[in-house]
């Protein structure tokens, strides 16, 4: 079973199940604003040494490895590698492992590509225009159904992507044991309740265990999961789980700050409110110093 398929199929509760109980995400509130992504590496010193901030787990409490003996021994034996539980609840591959659209939305049809959906989608938009009392045949609207269908496919193009392809092998063996943070990654997503956008920024940190990830791949992971119909909480968790699957680090931290247009343009109409969600796994959850170091880096100018 490919790890890509596991993630694409997971509901929020399945993601929770996949994360070892000791690493269940906690919520933190932060607020700040910056536009550009910044990659930071931080050295640990003095009282915040690596040994201090790692909470070593006794052998018997280690989460079971999904790959068994294939896991390389960590360079730092007292740093537990964060490994997802084997996803026994995930059904076996039925030959549609790349068809994440099918799996995420639990639809019956199995389109060979999502582009094949365009004609039906365009017809639906044409009906919608009629429903609005518009004339879909007037000059300005004649191509609108097709344009809107293409736009919607773009907004949800993450359904066409999978983690393995996106990583493209850019996982490197490296004896680096300090925190890596890529912050302020722009994010555009679609609220699954109202089909209107929410947007904002994502900050990701991880503590490597012998493996590092190509930096751009963190932003690409954000794209995989933000370009779908989403809720912010699930998006946050999926990003953290994907980073865990990619490099099995000692810990992963993800903070997402989002503005939901369903709360701005309609409904409660609160134009200044922001939603902040976080997922803290491994040492980021267990060790307050590590979490604080991450949040300081995320909040620094
Ligand atoms: N938890 C969560 N809720 C979301 C997200 N995006 C939208 N929502 C909420 O989904 C809820 C849907 O509530 P409903 O009462 O069914 O729909 P509604 O009548 O349009 O609700 P209002 O937005 O309050 O007008 C609203 O409270 C939205 O704010 C999200 O990413 N996470
Ligand atoms: Zn909404």
Automatic annotation (TrEMBL):
Keywords noted in UniProt: Hydrolase, Tetrahydrobiopterin biosynthesis
UniProt biased composition (Low complexity): 40-49
Pathway named in the protein's UniProt entry: Cofactor biosynthesis; 7,8-dihydroneopterin triphosphate biosynthesis; 7,8-dihydroneopterin triphosphate from GTP: step 1/1
Region (Disordered): 35-80
Compositionally skewed regions (Polar residues) per UniProt: 59-69
Pfam families on file: GTP_cyclohydroI
GTP cyclohydrolase I domain sequence ranges: 123-298
Alphabetical list of InterPro entries matching this protein: GTP-CH-I_C/QueF (IPR043133), GTP-CH-I_N (IPR043134), GTP_CycHdrlase_I (IPR001474), GTP_CycHdrlase_I_CS (IPR018234), GTP_CycHdrlase_I_dom (IPR020602)
EC number of the protein: 3.5.4.16
Record carries keyword Nucleotide-binding: no
CDD domains: GTP_cyclohydro1
Enzyme superclass (EC): hydrolase
PANTHER family the record matches: GTP CYCLOHYDROLASE 1 (PTHR11109:SF7), GTP CYCLOHYDROLASE I (PTHR11109)
Family: Belongs to the GTP cyclohydrolase I family.
Protein name: GTP cyclohydrolase 1
Organism: Drosophila arizonae
């Amino acid at each position: 079973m490919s790890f890509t398929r596991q993630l694409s199929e997971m509901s929020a509760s399945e993601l929770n199940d996949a994360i070892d109980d000791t690493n269940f995400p906690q919520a933190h509130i932060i607020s700040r604003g910056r536009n550009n992504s910044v990659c930071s590496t931080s050295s640990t010193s003095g009282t915040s040494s690596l040994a201090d901030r790692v909470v070593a787990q006794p052998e018997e409490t280690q989460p079971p490895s999904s790959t068994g003996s294939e896991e390389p021994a960590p360079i730092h034996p007292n740093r537990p590698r964060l490994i997802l539980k084997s996803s026994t609840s995930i059904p076996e591959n039925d030959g549609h492992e790349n068809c994440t659209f099918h799996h995420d939305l639990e639809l019956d049809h199995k389109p060979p590509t999502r582009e094949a959906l365009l004609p039906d989608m365009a017809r639906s938009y044409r009906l919608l225009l009629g429903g609005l009392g518009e004339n879909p045949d007037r000059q300005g609207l004649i191509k609108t159904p097709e344009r809107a269908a293409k736009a919607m496919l773009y907004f949800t193009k993450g359904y066409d992507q999978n983690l393995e392809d996106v990583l493209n092998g850019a996982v490197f063996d490296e004896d680096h044991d300090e925190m890596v943070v890529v912050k302020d990654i722009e994010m555009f997503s679609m609220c699954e309740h109202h089909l209107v956008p929410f947007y904002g920024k994502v900050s990701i940190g991880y503590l490597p265990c012998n493996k590092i990830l190509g930096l751009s791949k963190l932003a690409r992971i954000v794209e995989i999961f933000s370009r779908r119909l989403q809720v912010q909480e699930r998006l946050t968790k999926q990003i953290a789980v994907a980073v865990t699957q990619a490099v099995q680090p000692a810990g992963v931290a993800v903070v997402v700050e989002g503005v939901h247009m369903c709360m701005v343009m309609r409904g409660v109409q609160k134009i200044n409110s922001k939603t902040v969600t976080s997922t803290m796994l491994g040492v980021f959850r267990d060790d307050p110093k590590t979490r604080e170091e991450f949040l300081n880096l995320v909040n620094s100018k």
